[in-house]
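Re-running the complex after MR caught last week's input typo. The corrected sequence lines follow. Everything else is unchanged.
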Amino acid sequence: MGTLLEIRDLKVSFDTEEGKVEALDGVNLKVKEGEFHALIGETGCGKTVTGLTILGLLDNNAKIENGQVIYKGIDLLKLTEKQLQQQIRGKEITMIFQDPSTSLDPIFTIEEQMLEALENELELTKEEKLKIITEELRKVKLPDVEELLKKYPHQLSGGMKQRVMIAMMLSCRPSLLIADEPTTALDVSTQAQFLKILEDLKRETKITAIYITHNLAVVSEICDTVSVMYAGRIVETASLKEIFLNPQHPYTYKLLHSVLGIETDIEQLQEIPGSVPKLINPPSGCRFHPRCEEAKDICKTKIPKLQEISDGHFVACHKRVMEWTKC
Amino acid sequence: MRTHGNYIFRRTLRALFTALGVSLVAFLILHLAPGDPVKIMLGPYATEENVKALKARYNLDKPLYIQYFTWIKNIFTGEFGTSIRYNRPVSELIKERMGPTLILTGSGLLVAVILGILFGTLAALKKNSILDYITTFQTMFWLSVPSFWLAIVFLYIFGLKLRWIPIAGMTSFSSTILPIMTIGLRQQAWFARPMRAEMLEVLSQNYIKALKAKGLKYEKIIWKHAFKNALIPIITMVALQLPWIIGGAVVIEVVFSWGGMGSLLVGSVLSRDYQVVQTILLFISLAVVAANLLADILYTLIDPRIRIER
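Corrected-run output:
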């Protein structure tokens, strides 16, 4: 499988009233074609910013300081707003958001908003477009599609809206879907339903996805590869199995052990001491070192690079990489 | 679930009750105020008999509630009574004066709505640009000057100094420009500022990001989605501003010697011409009630959430 999207050394900062926030500080990420790539981490670690940067949807106070986002050989950061709109958004890459209740325009019908997704398909007649969107809505298991098309967003439940969103985004046949915590705002049973739909889509459409979440259970259901983010950096990337069975970065380890699972035999729930650092004045060196029990002097001064320690397993930790190179 | 028709019916019923209440207030406010129209008319040396006879002629000797109900009853038959000052039917006077007032307030409102929405939208789209700052400055300026002062300054500059436009009356098309612009320029400030705020608010909404994510054209996102959403609260603003526009028009009519209902009203108040004053007050109040009703109905056409839910 080839690489569909590669993010290289991406740095993004925000101008805020309290000062400059270094939201992303050297993010490196490779997304392979056809995989569901989980981007996991605590709130405020830069997951959503990463997703928004790919599509050029950052707010005006954001500044891309450095880096490349290579998609099918093109650096997306070099494209103009117009090029992004005409060539990338919707057609190649699209995104669904955390809160479905605010993701649809309240004053237009579902039909109107679904049809907009196909607006650039000039050769299609309205009937053909209607047929496509009806099919897409059926694919996400929405009942009474004909009636649903005439409805307005406020007449739909949260779960239905999120399914409409995904049907809408998929009807333009993108190659890459960025899903930003799509189940967080849904209740648990709706979450399970939604994940089942994603699983089916994955099997049937071979779409590639970046799945942004802080929920490990969700990740284990549908993702193939996991990247763990901490304070604006990727600290570990590995296959799902490797992450769960052989976590290398101390943060990944702590993260896994701070969640209760039925299958895991963890005796006591552990919390990670300290709290997520403020990115206005982030810690030097490895940003996790103030909370890391294994931190050494080098961790306080030198930023650890993401290095491959076994096939497809990358980790950014001085201690682990040293241990690995020794044996 | 209540239907759309039901909603409009209930709103109309409510408007009718409001109108009834308003008619009572319009009636009482005048009759309870000091001053006697008959005495004003006949002068200080009138005899007791003359005063009595005249009062009987205009029904002013009856108890207040009888006068009120007679008035209401007559309204439905198109009988608004007789003006004491002009000794002519009030309906005739109003028919003459209604047109000029409608032209003045209607055009003023139209100018205000168009300019306000235009300035507000552009200021939001070009936030923190020169255009945005100019909009902030000009709206603050118009909001700060009283309309009578503005009317006099306009008259001085364009009428007396530059001699572009006749200074008073309704003689030609050019004479309508100053009074209309006095209303329009001031009122647009009331619409431009909320329009800018609404537009910025809508543009920061999640669905705008989602529309971008599906690859929709910028122009469509702005003019189809953001603009229409931002316009909803502005409809209420316009309805709420209508009383102020009418109130402002009264003053402006007097300054520009504009022969509308406003100048008729002022003259009639000064001479305690009850029938005329209460009829005009009623007409103005009904216009305001009707505008609010219209705003409510317009709302339902543009915002589906109100159409179906409430």
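None of the earlier attempt is carried over here. The interface with chain A takes residues 205-207, 209-218, 220, 225, 228-229, 232, 302-305, 308-309 of chain B (CB under 8 Å). DSSP finds 13 helices and no strands in chain B.
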